Amino acid sequence: MNASALASPPPPESTLSELLFSAVQDSFDGRDREIMERRFGLVADRAQTLQVIGDSIGVSRERVRQLIQRNLRRMLARGGRRTPRVGDACAELLQYVRTTTAHDSPDRLDKVYELVVRELSHLRSYEQGFELVLYLLGYRDSARAAALAVLAARLREAEHQRARDALTARLNQRLATLLVQLPTRS
């Protein structure tokens, strides 16, 4: 899969994916563009693992991770200029993420969670989306790790709740079936 063949819009119709796609298109060429598009699922149905990307371009998954981190730093530097150029896709991406997650709000991690679940569901995992958004918000190292732990705990709780709800629905359906089968007394 070469980068020039990947110049179609992202499959999920979400503002964050569209802005990320534009920022990647404006910022990178060749291998860097291909890596970003494949990792964040910007041109295919699903995001790809570091291993799959590395195998296809002939580098280790660790090298792919390093290239992604370098590219994200470049996007932050470009979009974080004091006076960004008009129409700069990186600046638009960063502005969208900051305003959508209520910059300096006490419930900011709740907003990050909602944004990722709503707009980045095409990624391989929500944790990948959390990583991306927290990086774009400027969370670094220990702060990002702490925020990721909070978001992962919330995700696990939501998954447990969905499982409990599904079990309750199945039990209620089975109970209704059994009640219908009971002989009625006259």
Could you explain how this protein is built, in words?
- The chain is an all-alpha fold.
- It has one domain.
- Helices cover 68% and strands 0% of the residues.
- It has eight helices and no strands.
- The protein has helices spanning 15-27, 30-39, 50-57, 61-79, 89-100, 108-119, 126-136, 141-181.
- Helix 1 packs antiparallel against helix 5 and helix 7 (126-136) runs antiparallel to helix 8 (141-181).
- The longest helix has 41 residues, at 141-181.
- The protein is elongated, with a radius of gyration of 21 Å.
- Mean pLDDT is 83; it is low at 1-13.
Q: Count of DSSP helices? A: 8
The poorly predicted ranges are: 1-13
Whole-number mean pLDDT: 83
Taken together, the total number of domains comes to 1
Largest sheet: none
Gap from first CA to last CA:
72 Å
Oligomer: single chain
What's the overall geometry? elongated
What is the N-to-C succession of helices and strands?
A: HHHHHHHH
- Using only CA atoms, what is the Rg? 21 Å
Total number of beta strands? 0
The portion of residues assigned to helices is 55-70%
Strand content: under 5%
Which structural class matches the secondary elements? mainly alpha
Describe the secondary-structure layout.
Elements: H1 15-27, H2 30-39, H3 50-57, H4 61-79, H5 89-100, H6 108-119, H7 126-136, H8 141-181
